[in-house]
Structures are given as C-alpha cells and as structure tokens.
Structure prediction request, 231 residues.
Amino acid sequence: MIGFYDYTVILTYISLLCSVFGITQAIDGKFRIAIVCLAISGLCDVFDGKIARTKKERTDDQKLFGVQIDSLCDVICFGVFPTVICYILGVRGILGGIVIGYYCVCSVIRLGFFNVLETNRQIKEDGANKYYYGLPITSITIILPVVFLLSFFIPAHAFKWVLLAMLFIVATLFILNFRLRKPTGKQLSLLIIIVAFIVSIILLCSDYGIKHRTVQEGALIHELCNRWNSE
Prediction:
C-alpha cells in the first residue's frame, strides 16, 4: 500500500474523521455536536506535530508526507468544515457565497504557503518552527465557537452578519504577512481550557433548552432533505 502508516499521523486522521462526522451533524441540524467536533479537530491538530517529532530518525519522505497530509486534512477540517456550519446557520445568498468562497481560497493559499515554508525549513533544520506567518488556520476552532455563543443572545438577522464578517476578517488574516509567536506550553494549556469552557457553555445551553431562531432556521435544511428523500 502507498503512504506511511505509523503513530505519527494518527491524530491527523482522527482530526479529519472528526470533521467529516461534524459536517454530517451540521447538515442534520445538530450544530452543537458540530462545534464540539470542530474543537476536537483543532485539539488534534495542535498535538499532531508534537507527536510526529517524537519519532526519531524519520526519513525525508516521512517528514514531507507528514507535512502534506496535515495540510490536506486541514483543508477539510478548518477550510471546508467551518464554512458548512456558517452556510447552514445563515451565511447564504450572493454575498454569503462570495465570502465563503473567499474564506476557502484564503485557507488553501495559507496552507500551500505553509507547505513551501515548512518543506524548506525541514530540509535545513529539525524541531518546530517558533513563529506563525499570518493567522494560523486552526484559530477558527477557537473563534467560531466564541461567535456561535452569540447566537443565543442576539437577533437571528444580526447573527448572520456577524458570521459573515467573522469569516471575511479571519480569511484575510490567514494571508496577511505578519509574524505571530507560537504559544508556550502554559499559553497552549490556557487556550485549551478556554475552548473547553466555551464548548461546555454551548452544551449547557442546549441542555437547558436555550435556543435561538438562527439555530432553528439552520435545521430547516435537514428537514427539507428529509422531505426530498421521502418523495
């Protein structure tokens, strides 16, 4: 079989599978589960590189495969998956389509640029890079859950504009040329705690029946699909 099969890519594949499952849940109108899947995918992406570097004496082909497979999976996890959630939640129409397309293009540009930089860097040195160039694509796993919380507190029409603006701003930051230092171990732990706290609030809101029309409207796609299948 082609490819490389060892523990260094397990988290990358788990991240991909989690995102694919999350897409199906978003289409079914289960947005809270989808948001949880997005957060888990982000968590896997944070640690997959660290785990890969624990394997000593990796060949150049194994290193390059790891870089490529990580970015390919990231296209689905953090490029396509978030836009599916936003589309079903109301980012539609001509403007919505343009912004979603813009986000996806910026995501691919960023990941392609990362591949070039990381491939050249790994040829020259080992270890992890200490800086991001532009906003890391994984940041959407923090930003989208935070924005999703607003759906419980603001009008549906306003929330759709917030989602649209968020996608545009984040996409632009993906491709802006600025340097951002990677978080330290303590900072990373704090980010994980924050995301876990946000996800917990989202799930608690669901348990206590706190809903917003935006979420209910998004679920109409699932209902229409069921009707279409029954005809």
Observations:
- The chain has one domain: 7-230.
